[in-house]
Design goal:
The structure is a homodimer.
Chain A lengths: L1 H10 L1 E3 L3 E3 L7 E2 L1 H14 L7 E5 L4 H11 L3 E6 L9 E7 L6 E7 L8 E9 L3 H12 L3 E11 L4 H7 L4 E10 L5 E3 L1
Parallel strand pairs in A: 4-5, 4-8, 8-9, 9-10
Antiparallel strand pairs in A: 1-2, 5-7, 6-7, 10-11
């Protein structure tokens, strides 16, 4: 998506350790018009997928995901990072390692909000190793639902998570796919 | 706002300890059309306030707040709960006690995203004791900006936080104000 690539070139910052900082429009300060445009693109891409629910993970995916849910006319559910290791029987849960923070989170969704028969579109701001998507997909499958695909803002294609998931049969649509990031601040898109 | 009050009556659940559970439309599963309608109402209420930024706190305020920011045509900034007690000089920070979780969070916003001259609308899903709003207001004031008011989905008026803030001169607009909640599940609005 040209609009998002332009914005990354203009406002993205490359930090040591392969971190792309986009927190002035995507995940700390957020541009709502960009979220709206991305949601329209997801709606176009997944128009025929029968989406009846959007699922994301707190916190920075929520802004994109609510706009996407609005475009599809369906509810958004966001998976929560659990503070407790004692997981109740009222939730589906999964362990998700975080590339950025170097830790593992227990992520939960209430059993009330994921069901057999659901056709779920996963939404997230970043795709790197794919761990978050694997976790979200597992939550949907615990409920007996189907994942129709994943809509991602920025895929770091060089980390391989997206292609691995595609090879496993998941439809992954990333609006910007980064082939490489140079230490001099240059970004190459796929 | 009639639409929100109806939804609370229909889908809200009262739990022991004065907790109103609205996680099937507001803060776990989220109804995007309701978020959109609430955002339009905030836009109407604060039309002349010169809002140039919306500020909320992660995670459950983000969905409402991005819709509000879209209605105002301005950026959303969300304050983050810091995992670290070592706060960098690059952020404004404040301590916010949580009524629901019984703990205190250090909440931060990057200095890049709040400025002197900003006219900030605070948005949050709940107002009870007012601690979150007090914290968000302090962050704006650390930056030298002005808070033009607060837009809240559900105010638990019986906990007094809203009226205390109004008495101090803050404009607080709550779309549903709860006067009392009975142990039998009844809810009375102001």
């Amino acid at each position: 998506m040209e609009l998002l690539e332009q914005r990354i070139r203009q406002d993205g910052q490359i930090l040591p350790g392969g971190i792309l900082k986009v927190d002035n429009f995507l995940n700390h300060q957020i541009d709502p018009q960009l979220m709206y445009e991305m949601a329209q693109e997801f709606k176009r891409l997944f128009a025929d997928a029968g989406v009846n629910k959007v699922l994301t993970i707190e916190a920075s995916g929520i802004a994109m995901a609510i706009m996407a849910a609005h475009a599809f006319g369906c509810p958004l559910v966001f998976a929560k990072k659990s503070k407790s290791k004692n997981i109740s029987h009222e939730v589906y849960s999964v362990e998700v390692p975080s590339f950025t923070h170097g830790n593992t989170n227990t992520v939960v969704v209430s059993r009330q909000y994921l069901h057999a028969g659901d056709r779920v579109l996963l939404i997230d701001d970043f795709l790197a190793t794919g761990a978050a998507l694997v976790g979200l997909k597992a939550l949907v499958e615990q409920a007996g639902g189907s994942v129709v695909g994943a809509g991602i803002a920025i895929e770091k294609a060089f980390q391989g998570g997206g292609d691995k998931l595609r090879a496993e049969g998941l439809r992954v649509e990333s609006l910007a796919r980064i082939a490489s990031m140079g230490d001099d601040g240059t970004i190459e898109f796929c």
